[in-house]
Specification:
The protein is built from eight helices and four strands; from the N terminus they run ββααααααααββ. It is mostly helical. The longest helix is centred in the C-terminal third of the chain and has 28 residues.
Length: about 210
């Protein structure tokens, strides 16, 4: 029989998935969601330029508008408030994207920047408990500090990056991709090598 893909959770009566990369991807999305978004955004920065991003937002806006119309027509017989709200929201978001794509792109970058910054702060606080327990703590700390700085730059100056020259656009895109990869690596290493117990409210580092 194949090796059972479960291990006993210490100090707990339950079971948890074995700590491998497949289960990390499957069950721990909250650990790598923001780094993955950074990776994708960095790739977009490298492949696209500011004005092209506006075009992309416009195209997505058209798609959202069409989706809103289709949802409204296909579910016309089921006139529930939820359906009406969903169809209207899609159409309005699409319309805003078509009318002012630059504003939408800027707002999108501000939201991502804020999420990256807050996520890094949370990681710095939670990973402080690893100090003295792992030789990789300094690497984790430096990665989170640099990531927080990049998130803050995105939040405070989104228009600057959208309007920057090609060279800076590429550099920032590469930086986002590298930091995204480092953050995914860090999250996996902490997940894989950490000894975790459940204190009833959250998963904490074992003393």
């Amino acid at each position: 029989m194949a090796k059972q893909n479960l291990i006993e959770k210490k100090n707990s009566g339950g079971m948890q998935p074995e700590k491998n990369f497949i289960n990390f991807v499957k069950f721990e999305s909250k650990r790598y969601a923001i780094p993955f978004i950074m990776l994708v955004l960095g790739l977009l920065f490298i492949l696209l330029q500011g004005n092209v991003l506006d075009v992309l937002v416009t195209v997505l806006g058209v798609v959202l508008m069409i989706g809103g119309v289709i949802m409204g027509l296909s579910l016309l017989s089921a006139t529930s408030p939820l359906v009406v709200f969903g169809a209207s929201a899609l159409f309005i978001l699409g319309l805003i994207s078509v009318i002012n794509p630059s504003w939408v792109a800027t707002f999108f970058l501000k939201v991502i920047g804020l999420c990256v910054f807050l996520n890094s702060l949370i990681r710095i606080i939670t990973e402080h408990s690893l100090k003295g327990k792992t030789s990789k703590y300094s690497f984790y700390f430096i990665t989170d500090i640099v990531t927080a700085a990049v998130g803050l730059l995105l939040f405070l100056f989104p228009t600057t990056w959208l309007q920057s020259v090609s060279f800076l656009f590429y550099v920032f895109g590469i930086l986002l991709m590298v930091l995204g990869i480092f953050n995914i690596y860090t999250a996996y290493k902490v997940y894989k090598e950490g000894r975790y117990v459940n204190d009833g409210t959250d998963v904490v580092w074992e003393e």
